Amino acid sequence: MQAIHAKQNHDGPALQTAGLTKRFGERVAVDAVSLSVPRGTAYGFLGHNGAGKTTLIRMLLGLTAISDGSASVLGLPVPAQRSAALARVGAIVEEPSFYPHLSGRENLTIAAAVRGPEARTRVDGALGRVGLEKRADDRVGTYSLGMRQRLGVARCLLSDPELLILDEPMNGLDPGGMLDMRQMIRALVEDEGRTVFISSHLLDEVEKTCDVAAIIDGGRVIAEGPIEELVAGGAGELIVECDDAERALKLLAGDPAVRELRREAGALRMKLHGPEQAGEINARLVGAGVVVTRLEPVRHSLEERFLEMTTRLEVAA
Amino acid sequence: MRLNLATAWQMIGADLLRLRKKRGFIALVLAAVLAPLLVWTGYQVLEHASNPAHYGPAGGLAHFARMLTLLGVFMGPVAAVLIGAEAGAGDIAAGVFRDNVVTGRSRWALFFARIPAALIVTFTAIGMGLAVGLAVTFGFAGGLETPSLSLILQSAAWLALANGVVCVIAIGLATLTGSRPGTITTLIGWELVLSPLLVQSTSLGSARDGLLDGVVTFLKPGPVVGGPPITMSIGVAVLVTIAWLLVLPALGAWRAQTRDA
Fold first, then answer.
1. Cα A14 to Cα A28: distance, rounded to the nearest angstrom
2. What is the ipTM of this complex?
3. Cβ separation of A102 and B21 shorter than 8 Å?
4. Do B100 and A114 count as a contact with CB atoms less than 8 A apart?
5. Domains of chain A in sequence order
6. Which of A53, B92, B99, B195 has an alpha carbon 20 to 30 Å from A169's alpha carbon atom?
């Protein structure tokens, strides 16, 4: 069993796992996952449905036992110091649940009672923070899904959390609701310095909302890093426009730096073995007297990168 | 996360809030306690009014004794089961148990906070039944004997014991199974059908001493109504009550601790 020797300070990662594993009988739902979630970031945890996202969250929160490996939350090992760790964590797992016969305010009052006396003083502030103050005294049974998601975030805020763990917070939201949620998450990170860990299968939303992400597939993390790096990572793809595309095509055909090459709408589109080889391509063309008028790395969406990675794994399997 | 007295009170208050604000449920509980009492009393009042020579007044000591049986052995326990089942499994049914667990609060604390809140609701409902029963006992006594203050106080304590134990058992079973309908069906079937039959089965001999119904009937203060008196030692009665009070709640507490939230 790998061990995490996290210091109990405020500088280390907000979440850290080492070889975290969950087995259900013979089936491995989470397979030796090692993550490090930096503080003060919005961290996206991406994966298909059934990839192991919620199971990992449930282990972190002590809702289900860890089969192997170790984890720490805010520098404290879980489950050993779960209670202390979760005192400064707000979490929504799967979907926020409430008593439908009670109002939003009453539901938060009940949740605050479990947290302790200080949490009760935060009920009104939390309702205002998520924009529910006008509907706070209506029964939750009359709330839309988007309002319940916001009320879930308000419940998270009762503990004045350093870390929020939100499992599929965009699920079921309309575009306006998604925008609200995205803005709220960004404000929690940028204005209030909190860490937000978001699991989602909505790649576009994670790309727009998060600073850092990990991609999980079949229970294993297959990529982790800043969104920019994930998007730009991999082979490196280039679009080149020049004064003589036909000649450039002949020059680059068979070039060891180029993996794939094709003409596309008057330009050349190529995949390189690495993004650093763009300069070599430029030098080769210019050296041969070809005038390069445009040389632009292709920026993939996170969705394309995600599909590329997971498809590659499926092919390899 | 330490549990201090202020937080414990808050948690009990929160459980009380979720129970008392469920209006349909509260109406059902009050109907279970009050409706049979009012129907039965109304019938007796009409009987007496139609033929005073044949039917005595609706109130008095005999009415009081029968009212106690109704509240302590039949309809009171039904209300206690409804309340206990809601208190024990309401948060699981609503999905809120998981959200409470992720606060880091001890699962023991989450379980035990349910008990005082449920008992408060139970005692309030039974107290209302007792108040109505006393009003009839004294209001329609005519010239009949009425219960003394001492008997009234003993009866109140007995009602609290009889219904409180059933309520705590229901909380334990509901937490153990996670099912309100299952708990209500099982315990009402036990309380109203199976247990009274077993208590009346003389062939069971002293094995009947282990039945809560037998203990409750044995401990009932005031005149005996409806069948021969049940005899057992007070020590056995206390031990059986404690056993019923401990076993199912302990299983419920264990399940609250181990349940995959």
1. 25
2. 0.86
3. yes
4. yes
5. 15-225 (3.40.50.300), 237-297 (3.30.70.2250)
6. B92
